[in-house]
Amino acid sequence: MRLIDVHCHLESDEYPAGPGPEIEAARRAGVIKLVTASIVPTQWDLSLDLSARFPEVECALGIHPWYIKPEHEPDLARLQSAAQRGAAAIGEIGLDRRVTEPPMEVQRRFFDAQLTVAKQLDLPVVVHCRAAFNELLDSLRRIGAPRTGGVVHNFSGSRELARDLQRFGLVFSFGGVLTYRNSAKKRGLIRDIYPDAFVLETDSPDIPPIEAPGRPNRPANIVYNLRAAAELLGESEENVAQATTEVAARIFKLTV
């Protein structure tokens, strides 16, 4: 099987031996591509370096809503060179009403600016969104989305919301929450979006699967998410692996 992890954070300092052993373990598990997402501008060079050093790694450059600082304002202009420097996506960007700082108006300004860059460069977006889907849809309606679309990672919305977001070319991924198989809502949602808008992620080092609890989560643990997805869908692991890899390759313009 050939798998793509569409969302992880190899830049994290939670891997004491560095990202190399994690990439090798993922390779042995069948992962052919990993999309590692920066969360602050100080990680951008590291993300690009990982992409240059490891053929399995693609990178996304962005500013996560939790970590927006006033001093990041000039970095928004620097994103204009993301494609030229080798980034495969703009991310992790987003909106989050579950946090009070930074305020939503600041989050929206940064999100809109990064979405605009992604659309101009036609790079897919990697989106974090919690309890702010109305604001997300508003931005998409005003600004639009890149032609190639993007991924709403660890998606927590409804089936109806998923249909609205799919109109903008967005697809959906879930981390280790897939392995908690007791949600009829999740099962119905996944069956709605599979096979055309469903991809796999680990969000490592976050959201470990139930089979491998504790931090850090690892990209190699995507095999547990695949197994859970196959069970929820009533499909073979081979079919789910093929379908999710095809969707991920299309979104991120990958040759696999």
CATH fold-type name: TIM Barrel
What is the chain-wise order of helices and strands? EHEHEHHEHEHEHEHEHH
State the low-pLDDT regions, or none: none
The termini sit apart by 12 Å
What class would the helix/strand composition place it in? alpha/beta
Q: Under the CATH scheme, which class?
A: Alpha Beta
CATH H-level homologous superfamily name? Metal-dependent hydrolases
Going across the major beta sheet, what is the strand order? Answer: 1-2-3-4-5-6-7-8
For the secondary structure, the number of strands is 8
Question: How many independent structural domains?
Answer: 1
The CATH architecture classification is: Alpha-Beta Barrel
Average pLDDT, all residues: 97
Helix content: 40-55%
Q: What global shape is seen?
A: globular
For the CA atoms, what is the radius of gyration? Answer: 17 Å
β-strand amount:
15-25%
Number of helices: 10
State the major sheet: 8 strands, parallel
Question: What is the element layout, followed by pairings?
Answer:
Blueprint: E1 3-8, H1 19-28, E2 31-37, H2 44-53, E3 57-61, H3 75-78, H4 82-85, E4 89-96, H5 104-121, E5 125-130, H6 133-143, E6 150-152, H7 159-166, E7 170-174, H8 184-193, E8 198-200, H9 222-233, H10 237-252
Parallel strand pairs: 1-2, 2-3, 3-4, 4-5, 5-6, 6-7, 7-8
Helix pairs in contact: 5-6, 9-10
Describe the 3D structure.
- There is one protein chain.
- The protein has 256 residues and is of the alpha/beta class.
- The protein has a single domain (3-252), classed as Metal-dependent hydrolases (TIM Barrel), CATH 3.20.20.140.
- It contains ten helices and eight strands.
- It has helices at residues 19-28, 44-53, 75-78, 82-85, 104-121, 133-143, 159-166, 184-193, 222-233, 237-252, and strands at residues 3-8, 31-37, 57-61, 89-96, 125-130, 150-152, 170-174, 198-200.
- It has an eight-stranded parallel beta sheet, with helices on both faces.
- Helix 9 (222-233) packs across helix 10.
